[in-house]
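Anyone? Bumping this.
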Amino acid sequence: MDVYDKLTILSDSAKYDVSCSSSGVERGNTPGGTGNTAGCGICHSFTADGRCISLLKVLMSNSCIFDCKYCVNRRSNDTRRAMFTPEELADLTMNFYRRNYIEGLFLSSGIMRNPDYTTEQLIKVLELLRHTHRFNGYIHVKAIPGAAPELISRLGLLADRMSVNIELPTQDSLRLLAPDKSKESILKPMSAIRRGIQENSLDLMKYRHAPRFVPGGQSTQMIVGATPDSDLKIITLTESLYKKFQLKRVYFSAYTPVMEDSLLPALNSKPPLLREHRLYQADWLLRFYGFEAKELLDEGAPNFNPFMDPKCNWAMNHIDQFPVEVNTAPYDKLVRVPGIGIRSAKRIVTARRAGRIDFHGLKKLGVVLKRAQYFITCSGRRLEGLKVNESTILRSLISKREYSMYLPSPQVEQLSLFSDEELAAGAGKEVLLP
Amino acid sequence: MSWTTGVTYIYDGTFDGLLTCVFESYERKEELADISSAEEPQAVLFAPRTVATCQAKAERVYESIARNISPQAQDLIRCGFLTCAPQKELLIYRFLRIGFRVGGQVMQMLTEPSIHQLNKAVRHLKTESHAFMGFVRFSIHDDVLVAVIEPKNQVLPLIAGHFCQRFAGDTFLIYDKNHGEALMYRHDARPEDRLMMLNADEISIPEADEKEEGYRRLWKRFYDTVAIQERINHRARLSHMPKRYWAHLTEMQEE
């Protein structure tokens, strides 16, 4: 089998791993070396499914001793198996990198023989790249559940980012679908990496040139829609992973049916892309907007509203906290306004030092007035002629089609001289005063 | 003495030339309505004045920007000059007029129309530069890396540092077909000659050899394989990677 066929098989079986970011590490080149890393990460291409390609994402081998039901590479699946040699992988990485196809390597693997052996193979590839080819680009490598801590720390000194996939958010789901994995076998390497990073940061304080351990931090991934776990469960777990394990990223992967099993969604079911999207929106709210999981969802409403993004949904449920005055409100209040994002909030804070901001100015700062107008005042005044009631707000937050699905009320609309927005303004109930 | 308004200057199209225009405008107390590098002037009230570039005057203006406004303002107008904004000269001029009046605070006046437009143009330049750090595709011919790009803004000065560091041990050339400029880096030259900007209306690139073709095929294969069929979303791809980039992307070429 030649490299072309191997690449086909081993990238095909790696594609369900979502993470492809190359961010979090700012490192220069070394004399005689090739490559550097950019803190913000660089996307090199985008696939037909709209996802970014930043790293050469492949498995070292797709043969696996585990039998996880959701996975294409599981032992009992009848599929073509292949394995790269460390030299082939290093050659491919260097040649793609020099042509600026990629930012680095994302290396994962099925479990060959046992977790330790597999980890040793991964170390071989990384050593070849780092030492022989003097490669300074980005490397993301999977920590294999069950591998010895010494091996994981050796791997961590060669990589920029490591990840262990949680895959399923509850122990019950794990027992059901991934009988060879356990909560412990996943959390153990995760805490080993966290410990490594913490110890390393102490070393770096003492010795500036101490070798860096996983400088890009660790990430993980959860499958969405293979089990009946609620969004609340997923997002609460996500939050605690950020807080307790200091993870850099938690990825969500809408389950794509790859095989028939009575425990899994049917083969012809579509991946729950909208749900995945909502989870990512919530993830952003946790990481950048200062929200907490319990603000977004609770036992009463354990899943996200499919028609409205979580931030708008929160704003509609906390309408008493609005409007906010853009000229005086603190930054963390501003970012909670629908239509104001991180960038526009920062620009507002900058621009208001030079003078008062009006509605025209807000538009220039990148605020989406269509949504924001209902939640803000400029110098104590609302936008002129604005009708504020539940119906007008809803129409501005969600699309027309979804609006009709969102409201359970009868959808009879007669031809009229007035637009339906104007009519709605008269019909809806007043909720926002003063 | 009050300022004359509605004056048009013509300059040679260089950054120093533009700064000389700024100098002359203050010297002669003439408020500029247009600055252009075009040969044929538009109909204006006063005959346009052609300004001869003077490095000493340009330097005085440039230094006074750091002193009287801020070093960040220097950065902003340098970037502004590389953008494709239709009236970039006038935007920079107006920014400086306000800047010399109010000082460093001009950097915060984001809602002022001309400053907003200048910032927007610079943002476009920076976004495009960042995109090209990923979208540049090198072909390797006799161990020399060659790439062609067609950016809207002049991105080469902004991406030069990144590629020089990344491929410090290589020799490479990035040709900007739209602006007729090329960035050349030679690892084996003397330090002061390593990086060069050349003007070139055209460059000829040799045919790809077998090895080069091989890696292109592998890359295309990888690109096609990693897309998940159940998730195909052409609109998302177009918004991240618009078609105007495709012409020089290896993975988007038909076999």
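Late reply, but here is one note on the structure posted above: Chain B has a mean pLDDT of 93.
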